[in-house]
Design a protein that fits this description.
Number of domains: 2
Number of helices: 6
Distance between the termini: 66 Å
Helix content: 25-40%
Radius of gyration: 20 Å
Largest sheet: 9 strands, mixed
Order of helices and strands: EHEEHEEHEEEEHHEEH
Oligomer: single chain
Length: 269
């Protein structure tokens, strides 16, 4: 019997070209690219046999700097593992850290905290009002008005912060787990407050869905503003690959230059 090691990987990706993270039929998903690289390098040949798990299922257009996956493998590459996987990945997906984890490790169930960041282009929002209203989300609430399903909707938000930076309002939210589109719906609600269409009293009503139910809840903010920043685990010691991180930063800089150039072009049209 072949000895197997359980490995966890930290990933970053730009979600623009993909129909979400999770592999799906007749759609280009980020996992499709990851599985192809793992198979090409004989790291994983069967996701079920490898007991593959993911920390989060980001939607179409959502980005990540700290997604986590885990799997069993009998192949050992040591510290070169991230570079070997990256060699067969497109230039908008990167593995930048790895860790050997216990055989029972599950990237979804063992996560103790998930950190999301939403970038909202500042259109003259009242940021102090947004900050005041954001504090209402902290703690345990029924988030029915921020979800599509009506069961299992109680969640606890550990931290939420709103700040201004480089022409954007940035909303950071941390919790052990989230409902589908929950962060994007929170961002949309805070945008309504910032634009002056609603106030903190409205947020209080949204967090009291039994008295103030909203049919189908708040419509989520656009996916392209959301980033899965990080996922935290107890006792996992990550080994970061500086070369892979440098490639990732260079790609981010090139993308920033391109978007800044396009912004100037749009402004001049």
């Amino acid at each position: 019997m072949t000895n197997k090691t359980r490995i966890a990987l930290k990933l970053a990706y730009i979600g623009d070209r993909y129909h979400g993270f999770q592999i799906q039929q007749n759609a280009h998903a980020i996992e499709s690219e990851i599985f192809a690289s793992l198979e090409n390098n004989n790291i994983v040949n069967d996701t079920k046999e490898s007991r593959y798990s993911r920390a989060a299922r980001t939607d179409r257009g959502v980005h990540a700097s700290g997604q986590v996956i885990a799997f069993d493998t009998s192949t050992s590459f040591g510290d070169s593992l991230p570079r070997i996987i990256n060699h067969d990945l497109p230039d908008d997906i990167w593995v930048w850290a790895y860790a050997e984890v216990p055989s029972v490790f599950d990237a979804r169930r063992d996560a103790v905290r998930r950190d999301y960041r939403y970038y909202l282009y500042d259109q003259g929002y009242n940021v102090p009002d947004m900050k005041e209203s954001s504090r209402l989300f902290t703690g345990t609430h029924d988030f029915s008005n921020f979800a599509r399903k009506m069961e299992g909707v109680v969640r606890t938000i550990n931290r939420i912060e709103v700040c201004e930076r480089d022409g954007f309002v940035i909303i950071d939210v941390s919790a052990p787990s989230f409902l589908w589109n929950m962060v994007r719906r929170i961002a949309a609600a805070l945008e309504q407050v910032g634009a002056g269409f609603q106030d903190s009293g409205w947020i209080r009503e949204l967090l009291d869905p039994k008295r103030h139910p909203i049919h189908q809840g708040i419509h989520p903010a656009p996916a392209h503003g959301l980033v899965l920043q990080s996922v935290a685990f107890k006792g996992v010691e990550w080994i970061e690959d500086e070369y892979s991180k440098r490639l990732m930063r260079n790609a981010f800089m090139n993308a920033r230059i391109r978007h800044a150039t396009m912004n100037a072009i749009y402004s001049g049209l």
